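Pilot study result, target chain (107 residues):
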Amino acid sequence: MDQKLPNAQTVLILGIISVVGTCCCTGLIGIICGLIGLSKYKNDKLLYDKNPSQYSDYGNLNTGRILCIIGLSLGALQVIYMVFILATVGWDGYMEQMRDISKMGRG
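Predicted structure:
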């Protein structure tokens, strides 16, 4: 009798949010969702390893894990970049760059 792993769907959703959240928002969303997803993956992986024939959705769990790792990596890179920018040009220089980019986008 096949059953679903308890957190496979959650890990997959957290992985998707981690990647999308990093691209659309700050890197912190990707880091937080990625870490939570990897933690839930670990718990389900232990269940799966005890009796692999009992569970049917290991593919979703593994895909979620990969997405969490990607989101975590992208989030960490974005945070490192932000720290670098703030350390080199400061907050005022960063805001000035954002205003210049905004003006260029308007035409």
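One observation from the pilot: The chain has a mean pLDDT of 92. A full batch analysis is planned for the follow-on phase.
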